[in-house]
UniProtKB/TrEMBL annotation, chain A:
GO terms for molecular function: fluoride channel activity; metal ion binding. The keyword Glycoprotein does not apply. Its main location: membrane. Belongs to the fluoride channel Fluc/FEX (TC 1.A.43) family. Pfam families: CRCB (PF02537). Keywords: Cell inner membrane, Cell membrane, Ion channel, Ion transport, Membrane, Metal-binding, Sodium, Transmembrane, Transmembrane helix, Transport. It is found in: Cell membrane. This is Fluoride-specific ion channel FluC. GO terms for biological process: cellular detoxification of fluoride. Fluoride-specific ion channel. Important for reducing fluoride concentration in the cell, thus reducing its toxicity. It comes from the Bacteria. InterPro entries: FluC. The keyword Ion transport applies. It comes from Ruegeria profundi.
Amino acid sequence: MSQFYLHAMFGLGGGLGAVLRHWIALRVRHDLPFATLIVNVLGSLLLGLWVGYLGGPVDMGEEEKRLVFGFCGGFTTFSSFAYQSLELRRQRTIMLAAGNILLSLGLCWFAFWLGLVMIR
Amino acid sequence: MTQTSPTVRTTAIMFAAVFVGGAIGSLLREAFSAQIPGAPILTATFGINVVACFILGWLYAVRHRVHAHVVHLGAVGFCGGLSTFSSFVAELERLAISNLWGAVSAAGLEIAIGLGAAMLGEGLGRRLHDQQVPE
């Protein structure tokens, strides 16, 4: 398997993840950043499932692994989360910004853990 | 020749820009993650997330002055593909197995630095652009 092909799979996953994230952001129109929260929680759950699945006795090609890892990274975003938290503090209240941070961290961490234990 | 409406074309270019930006951002992250071996905290993922926050802040500072597709390519695609929340929590979970409070502290620290980077990027972007285009 050529390295180029494996990188291409990772990039393809990342691109597809970004497109799906943007599609969800256009669908979930709300003045609170729920779209980012949803993609981050779903992406963390998927990564947990994937890491847990690969931790077991599986015979999986490297290209499928890379595709899903790329997808999870492209789908979830840390930068939009950070910027939206700043915007919440500026335009709304500091409590909403703190709530967004705690909820994102808590739910995503839980989702990743849940994915891991569900598949084990 | 088929006639495509401007809206369809704009939507297609928008998603293409997001795809290309996301793919490039993901590949850059993959390249940098491989360069730096995994540390328990302040990992490569963390460093890359901070850089993405800085770039995103900068892009949002100038977003009204650039074409919408630049925002789609750079902010939504590239910064979103470069930064990741899933690997961030995956690394925290790995750290939490041996040191739960260390992981919680690392999470707080990394988020605080990410917010700081976004603020810094936004501030610098605004300042530099205002110097170039006096209003």
